[in-house]
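Sanity check

After download, print the first record. It should look like this:
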Amino acid sequence: MKQLKRIGLLAILLLAVAVGLGLHYVLPHHAVVYLTGTEVKRMDHNGIVTANNPADGPTRDVYFINAETPQTHEPRVFRNDDTRFGFPWYFKFDAADLQAQAQGLARNEKQLVLVTYYGWRLRMFSAFPNAVSVSATDSAEPPFPWFNTVLLLLVLGVAVYLALLARRWKRYRRGKPPGGAGA
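Expected structure tokens:
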């Protein structure tokens, strides 16, 4: 019985880690950067179409926004792709407009820009975070993520509620009163 309980706890822990990683991927993040340029690349399902990787299916244009961090001047690259009605539900249909806005902001190399994005940069897989919005800013500090904080507190509250509900159900199955003697 102890082994089954450990397996159950491990499964719950793995589920919590998976949910946490999933939320970290899809929730919006903010970066304050200098924009250094923009570009458009032709892509298919295998990635960027080049002489070494010819197109073997339908292709499309994908926008990229190049940037660097103000303090360390490390390069940052953001993908600028429409999410449309797909997951995550950002309902982004204006990638071309966002690209034009980024090009305008990149003209002034001293202008700090706040980029809102989701996703991760995985160099091994040539994966880039997807930019959702860009706007000029005067502050070198990104804003506090209020939306993420409130959503995570709600998720935590639901998880605690479900844990208490499961505990109450377990006591009920054992024959103990849920809130009375023996608590």
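If your output differs, re-run the checksum step. Summary of this record's structure: The first strand starts at residue 29 and ends at 44.
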